[in-house]
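Hello everyone,

My group is preparing for a crystallization screen and wants a predicted model to guide construct design. The compound we'll soak is adenosine-5'-triphosphate. Before spending weeks at the bench, it would help to have a computed complex in hand. I've included the protein sequence and the ligand's SMILES below. Output in structure-token form would be ideal because that's what our pipeline reads.
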Amino acid sequence: MAKRIEAVNVSAYYGAFRAIDNISMTIEPKSVTALIGPSGCGKSTFLRSINRMHEVLPGAKVEGQLLIDGQNIYDRDIDVTAVRRTIGMVFQRPNPFPTMSIYDNVVAGLRLNGVRKKSLLDAACEKALRGANLWNEVKDRLNRPGAGLSGGQQQRLCIARAIAVEPQVVLMDEPCSALDPISTLAIEDLIAELKNEYTIVIVTHNMQQAARVSDRTGFFSIDKTGEPGRLIEYDDTAKIFTNPSVKRTEDYITGRFG
Ligand SMILES: Nc1ncnc2c1ncn2[C@@H]1O[C@H](COP(=O)(O)OP(=O)(O)OP(=O)(O)O)[C@@H](O)[C@H]1O
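Reply:
Good plan to model first. Here are the tokens for the complex, ready for your pipeline.
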């Protein structure tokens, strides 16, 4: 189910501006990979290149290859909707559909995929909410608005919504940055469980979080404003945080830069 991701010389542009340059990295299935680095070094841009969300912006484009289990998702005959279904995404701010109930939020993607049968939707809703460690808190109020949950619950709802369609990869863009420490811990525990089934890539500014949740860490940086972001070092998380090979990585993780 989980998939291997291989980026081969991926560059991404906003109009003429090259935001990331020649990123190559392999992400193993059923692992958590953290992307860290100073603001503006292209972590989010790279993340959005992985499910073809980057190109949604006018003038934005991606060069290079992005292989998911060997299939280049930028091939001309690729079904982009199917790619985005396979590769779920969770954003910085919890963004449940505000007018929808908890139940409708979770099954929204399935309905979009044409699933109508109530028993199937019910089962998928429960499975996804259990998977997101939210079931016990909401099982008695599934018909209440998703927007009425706490921030941490809303983010778990968004994770439930992402996993309800059974993606193979889950991308998370600073999923805890709007959450308190307790909710953050709940999401981190959840990430540890989710990696049994999914390939997870998480952008985080919180280095303790990267160290806690990830197996591998990629450190991105930029030489100066206006230059593209580059992958400086990519290795086992334990190595990056204890004995990085590149001085720039060490300067960043020890707080001397960025
Ligand atoms: N919609 C956009 N239009 C034009 N330029 C953009 C857009 N989004 C991002 N950029 C630029 O692309 C570069 C990379 O931005 P990106 O958001 O990927 O960096 P980041 O490392 O995720 O930053 P942060 O940690 O602050 O979220 C930056 O120079 C940024 O200003």
